[in-house]
Amino acid sequence: MFHLAGWRRAVTRVFRHENRDLLAFRGAELVGVLPLMRCRTPFLASHLISVPYGVYGGPLGADRDVEHALVAEARALARRLGVGRLELRCFEDPGVAELVPSTLYSAFLQKVPSDPTQVMAAMPKRARAEARKAIEKHHLELSEGEWYLGDLVELFGAAKQGLGSPGLPRAWFEALMEELPGKVVLHLARKGDLRLAATMSFVSNGVFSFYYIGNTPEANREYSATNFLTVRLQEWCATRGIPVFDLGRSRLDTGPYQFKKNQGFEPTPLAYRYDLVQAKELPSFNPSNPRTAKLRETWAKLPPAVARLLSGRLMRYLP
Q1: Rounded to an integer, what distance in angstroms lies between the CA atom of residue 251 and that of residue 231?
Q2: pTM of the predicted model, to two decimals?
Q3: What's the CATH number of domain 5-104+270-298, 2.60.40.10, 3.40.190.170, 3.40.630.30, 3.40.50.720?
Q4: What are 20-46's pLDDT values in tens digits?
Q5: CB-based contacts of 292: which residues, under 8 Å, 6+ apart?
Q6: What is the CATH number assigned to the segment(s) 113-242?
Q7: Picking from 56-60, 123-127, 198-202, 287-291, which range would have the lowest pLDDT averaged per residue?
Q8: d(CA 247, CA 210)
Q9: Which of 115, 164, 165, 198 has the largest count of CB atoms under 10 Å?
């Protein structure tokens, strides 16, 4: 999904980062690509990232030799540009010993039953009970439509602020819809007229990526809305013949990480790799870092209008 050119067009359009894609050829035949963007920081430095605002990236080639050649050229480019670091968000180990590994994140993917009635049956007992409660007791419903974009922007921004993090601007979601036609799906979970959660997901190459979600404070506390969405969206995939469900990336041993395991998804450690060209350490601006606690606490207390205004500007520097 994140190797698609439309993703990087959206990044350039909204956040103004520079495309530095690398292509590999054998003769006239294209045999590999490394999607790469130069992302600037507020302190004049820049980094090469594959792929910004995405959870997967790295080289994609006809064979390992092609992928190694792409990484070697990316490392050389990083030095020519004098960037702080080269960051490759690889799903699998690219096999380059000179790169620094990070084990901070895991992905959660599993096959979707071909019969939608088997989705709930395949879930662990407790998760199945929560999903049934959402459906049978709380009568949650799932709706689909591009017109839920406004709900997503509002709920996503509010949820992120509650966690002490900046949200994403509406322009970003609009750009994804326009640059990735036919691959973006919006859903809303609701109880009658009460909105509980809105999602933006992506469908590409037989994989459904449950990517962005915004929910109300009571959505999970009272209504098990994310359990509900996990079931209903897998059923949505089953009825359309989409074989793989990607529940997204999570940091090791966090609440979301444990939630996904409780839904029956097994973690796959992600093979993120770094070349610290001028940087002294791996990036650490994430909620797991205790040094950011005061910033998160302050952000959560901002007036919502101020947080929305600042989020778009700040997210340019948090790719």
Answers
A1: 22
A2: 0.94
A3: 3.40.630.30
A4: 999 999 999 999 999 999 999 887 689
A5: 285, 286
A6: 3.40.630.30
A7: 287-291
A8: 5
A9: 198
